[in-house]
């Protein structure tokens, strides 16, 4: 119920108007470091200093106008230039509908070719983010078409709450595509997606193992301690080296766990979003992990006259 409510609020202009007038706007910078490319580059440099790699995402919603879609492409080109200029260890995550997928497949593919060609010149990897289930096949089709054209500096995202994901993972393994596996943050109907958290989690573990065993450097995007431990045990049992996969986490979430995994020798990448469209992103992240709400509530209380009543945050949180 809470998850669905948060997802609904992510698309509510009325709710956004209220939230942007509260301390949440300022506190959201724990998750979204800023609105400009320079803010991303600063956060990326800080992560690199902690031996964490990054992936940058320019926040935005689906574009229906070619001009604004091209503007989004321009923002991603700036990220690519900035990563190279600053010598950062990072790549870029692109939202397909933001750069024209809903406008038309050929227009979208032209935009992606521009990004992929630029990325190839600079040695940067491009990840195609995944959106709601209505766009899953519409995203994978042009991906495979560009893959067939010879582009290899790109990967995609699969979501463990969808029934189809194991089949998609096997297909990506067959092609040699680098996959980021996440749980998914959209409200999906029971016809296409698991509705119980336990089922989503189990499918995540099952698909992750398939990617680790037979895939090409999968990215396992989770903050769940139990899931992470089970995958570490699987890797050890199957003699899968720590250099053959990476864990991914959201900027500002479980920083203690990020550091712990890195200290154990695992590759860890932080997903660093930026942009003026921080509100829907924030609401979806809360929906994906409602426990994050505790952080925001605690922050509000600590900055109020009742702050002395709130326990101090644990080190590293």
What report would you give on this structure?
There is one protein chain. With 317 residues, the chain is of the alpha/beta class. Helix content is 50%, strand content 13%. It has an eight-stranded parallel barrel, surrounded by seven helices. α5 packs parallel to α6. The protein is globular, with a radius of gyration of 19 Å. The two termini are 26 Å apart. The C terminus is likely disordered.
List the helices and strands and how they pair.
Blueprint: H1 2-10, H2 13-19, H3 24-27, H4 37-49, E1 53-58, H5 66-85, E2 90-94, H6 105-122, E3 126-128, H7 136-148, E4 154-159, H8 165-175, E5 178-182, H9 197-214, E6 219-221, H10 225-237, E7 246-250, H11 255-263, E8 267-274, H12 278-288, H13 292-302
Sheet/helix structural class: alpha/beta
Instruction: Give the oligomer, counting copies of the same chain as homo and different chains as hetero.
Output: single chain
The tally of beta strands, per DSSP, is: 8
Strand content bin: 5-15%
Shape: globular
Order of helices and strands: HHHHEHEHEHEHEHEHEHEHH
Through-space gap between termini: 26 Å
Rg from Cα: 19 Å
Major sheet details: 8 strands, parallel, barrel
What do the pLDDT scores average to?
87
Widest sheet: strand ordering:
1-2-3-4-5-6-7-8
């Amino acid at each position: 119920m809470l998850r669905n409510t948060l997802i609904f609020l992510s698309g509510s202009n009325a709710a956004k108007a209220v939230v942007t007038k509260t301390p949440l706007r300022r506190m959201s910078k724990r998750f979204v470091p800023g609105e400009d490319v320079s803010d991303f580059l600063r956060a990326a440099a800080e992560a690199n200093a902690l031996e964490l790699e990054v992936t940058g995402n320019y926040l935005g919603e689906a574009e229906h106008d070619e001009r604004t879609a091209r503007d989004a492409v321009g923002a991603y080109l700036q990220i690519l230039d900035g990563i190279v200029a600053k010598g950062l260890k990072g790549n870029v995550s692109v939202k397909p509908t933001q750069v024209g997928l809903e406008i038309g497949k050929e227009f979208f593919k032209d935009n992606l070719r521009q990004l992929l060609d630029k990325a190839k010149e600079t040695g940067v990897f491009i990840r195609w983010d995944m959106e709601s289930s209505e766009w899953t096949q519409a995203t994978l089709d042009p991906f495979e078409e560009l893959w067939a054209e010879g582009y290899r500096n790109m990967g995609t995202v699969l979501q463990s709450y969808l029934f189809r994901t194991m089949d998609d993972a096997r297909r990506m393994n067959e092609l040699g595509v680098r996959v980021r596996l996440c749980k998914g943050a959209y409200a999906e109907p029971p016809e296409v997606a698991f509705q119980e958290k336990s089922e989503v989690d189990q499918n995540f573990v099952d698909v992750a193992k398939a990617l680790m065993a037979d895939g090409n450097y999968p990215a396992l995007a989770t903050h769940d301690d139990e899931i992470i431990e089970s995958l570490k045990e699987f890797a050890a049992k199957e003699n899968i080296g720590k250099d053959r996969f990476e864990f991914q986490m959201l900027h500002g979430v479980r920083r203690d766990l990020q550091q712990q995994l890195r200290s154990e020798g695992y590759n860890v990448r932080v997903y660093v979003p930026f942009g003026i469209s921080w509100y829907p992103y924030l609401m979806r992240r809360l929906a994906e992990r409602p426990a994050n709400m505790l952080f925001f509530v605690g922050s509000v209380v600590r900055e109020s006259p009742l702050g002395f009543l709130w326990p101090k945050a644990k080190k590293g949180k």
